[in-house]
Amino acid sequence: LGFEKDKEVKFQRVQEKIKKEISSWHWYDIMLFKDYVESGKSIRTIAKESKISKDSIFQTLKNCKNKIKER
Fold this sequence. Notes:
Elements: H1 2-23, H2 27-39, H3 43-50, H4 54-70
Helix pairs in contact: 2-4
């Protein structure tokens, strides 16, 4: 029981660090990353809906993921 609570607390800390990191990004990066993560849409679907190229979306998401990993 204590192990599960500790695990939950650590997970919440990681989530808060990620939120803090994301809040420091450019609005475009925030918009694309949140849309991708929260909606579960594919890069192709986001590209069709937004008229942004798949390559641009892919590169932005890759950069966002790398920023999170660095922290």
